[in-house]
Design goal:
This protein is α/β, with parallel strands linked by helices and 450 residues long. The chain contains 15 helices and 24 strands. Strands 13-12-11-10-14-19-23-24 form an eight-stranded mixed β-sheet, with helices on both faces. Strands 4-3-2-1-5-7-9 form a seven-stranded parallel β-sheet. InterPro entries: AcetylCoA_hyd_C, AcetylCoA_hyd_C_sf, ActCoA_hydro, ActCoA_hydro_N, Butryl-CoA_acetate_CoA_Tfrase, NagB/RpiA_transferase-like.
Length: 450
Amino acid sequence: MSFIKEYAEKLVTAEEAVKVVKSGDWLDYGWCSATARELDKALAAHVVENDLVDLKIRGGILMWVPEIFKIENPADHITWNSWHMSGVERKAIAQGFAYYTPIRYSEMPRYYRDSKQDVDVAMFQVAPMDDHGYFNFGPNASHMMAMCERAKTIIVEVNKNMPRCLGGFEEAIHISQVDNIVEGPNPLMAELGAGGPATDVDKRVAELIVEEIPNGACLQLGIGGMPNAVGSLIAESDLKDLGVHTEMYVDAFVDIAKAGKINGSKKNIDRFRQTYAFGAGTQKLYDYIHDNPQCMSAPVDYTNDIRSISAIDNFMSINNAVDVDLFGQVSSESSGIKHISGAGGQLDFVLGAYLSNGGKSFICCSSTFMTRDGEMKSRIVPTLQPGSVVTDTRANIHYLVTEYGKVNLKGLSTWEKCDAIISVAHPDFRDELIAEAEKMHIWRRTNKDN
């Protein structure tokens, strides 16, 4: 049978496709920009019309509010299980129907394959079918193939605006594996900005990091203002022969590449390729990665594997933090019991970069933040708030960077580490931090003389 004929036979409306969903099912909605849209609308109506209950849905990094969230009393019908929280999902936590699934992002494909995760129905957006019968996952290779291998029913929603992201393995699904095809209204890709223009604090932190980056280094950037500022500064620098091996592909990489700084010639693996597990940004990013052979879309158990990261010389990992305490514990996913995002791959890159020959891992944050009441608070705290999740343990943090400096915390005793951390705190909070450190017996009286 020709692929065109098979396509026609499997083509149905979204309303027809979702009829397979029944109460108690486990559903997968895709990931980030691949999250179902037309199927989501049809499913929301199907749930209400048939009073479905106990639907357990997996997804992550929602970039818009799904229709299934908008039904009356969603907690009576669905439970959203997020692999990584966005702002949309944080609000759903407060509504009582969303929960985070703690993970090491690099292990996600294995969770599906080895743990035998139930997937009754998988529904997600894909790029149009190619001449060989493949639907590309777009910038979302991540864990998608592993999830599809576990799915009893697979429904793809074709979006002509989904970029076709080249890879090498597990970046597409063949029509023979698909049960139904839905053609949506082809919405433009959802855009994800970097959180506003870089602040003076962002720029100062970027300066401190960029001066540590050698020619030929391989970059991993997290999302947010500071990593984006680092990217902008790199694009304006004299650095050359840079490589990319990252969890998330962001706009900053496009700017660096277009400035002629990236060629991947010094990478030990995947030479000349910019390797990533998923990508989200502005239309500029989607246009750049579409059909671009320089960019390599790959599953997350490859991109985030410590063995892959550490195999690349001069690996530079740059990530944000919410809070850091005087023991060197880093929380990047919650503030107390208030959940913010997720573990993602930060720890994998922290560990992998340090194991890399010449590699460095940077945890960066502003020294302070302002509350809604206009009060200035320190991000460097004596101990993490009760309920705050430790993303990177005190044994794993390498460089800590704020606008007041950068310190290498590897191998330091508790009092040395405490002293170094306080040295990059905001001056207004240092005496208070010293007093608390003394109470915790991690401060030597001679520290002030060092």
